[in-house]
Design brief:
Chain A is an all-beta fold. Chain A is 0% helix and 50% strand. The chains are: A mainly beta, B mainly beta.
Chain lengths: 107, 120
């Protein structure tokens, strides 16, 4: 099973600032990496798939990069609605696995 | 508009059974693979089970293999999860999610979730 490790666990950012979230895979997953946003009491929402492709309706301030074992989600200028938990997920192999999440909180 | 609506959650005793349902609308259900993903209270996401569009290919997480059964009815546009021999560690919100991707899969639409609580 591929283990996904996200860092940091919590990221404190001021509105308008840039946020950079990291995700590392225990072995190569090529570009088969997705990012999700989850707000309290809500279902996850797909942000990015294939490491760098924004899902339908996702604002351009969200961008993904990386391949192999190292991936990054960047939020260029944090808006109030972006404070949430973010998960990465690999889908290169079964079982698909998720990282433990990064909470982006208001500084 | 794609909609996934789960139902069937509730409180069940350890060793008991529960059947979850997911009603799909707004897309051609029989063209899509589907998954169940769960989230224990205050914890992260855990994939549970996958079913292909025809139902011919099925996968389970090791944690539920032999206890849970995924199925679908493409006439009723519905996905199911039969859960037997439930344990306390199965307590979670269970989401149905539409699958995309050519290897394993990611999830482009999710339901709102249904809470399963296993407790005596």
């Amino acid at each position: 099973e591929i283990v996904m490790t996200q860092s940091p666990a919590t990221l404190s950012v001021s509105p308008g600032e840039r946020a950079t979230l990291s995700c590392r895979a225990s072995q190569s997953v090529s570009s088969h990496l997705a990012w999700y946003q989850q707000k309290p009491g809500r279902a996850p929402r797909l942000l990015i798939y294939d490491a760098s492709i924004r899902a339908t309706g996702i604002p351009a301030r969200f961008s993904g990069s990386g391949s192999g074992t190292e991936f990054t989600l960047t939020i260029s200028s944090l808006q109030s609605e972006d404070f949430a938990v973010y998960y990465c997920q690999q889908y290169d192999n079964w079982p698909q696995t998720f990282g433990q999440g990064t909470k982006v909180e208001i500084k | 508009e794609v909609q996934l609506v789960e139902s069937g959650g509730g409180l069940v005793q350890p060793g008991g059974s529960l059947r979850l349902s997911c009603a799909a609308s707004g897309f051609t259900f029989n063209n899509y693979e589907m998954n169940w993903v769960r989230q224990a209270p205050g914890k992260g996401l855990e994939w549970v089970s996958y079913i292909s569009s025809s139902g011919s290919t099925i996968y389970y997480a090791d944690s539920v293999k032999g206890r849970f059964t995924i199925s679908r009815d493409n006439v009723k546009n519905s996905l199911y999860l039969q859960m037997n021999s439930l344990r306390a560690e199965d307590t979670a919100v269970y989401y149905c999610a539409r699958a995309r991707g050519s290897t394993s899969c990611y999830h482009d639409y999710w339901g709102q979730g249904t809470l399963v609580t296993v407790s005596s």
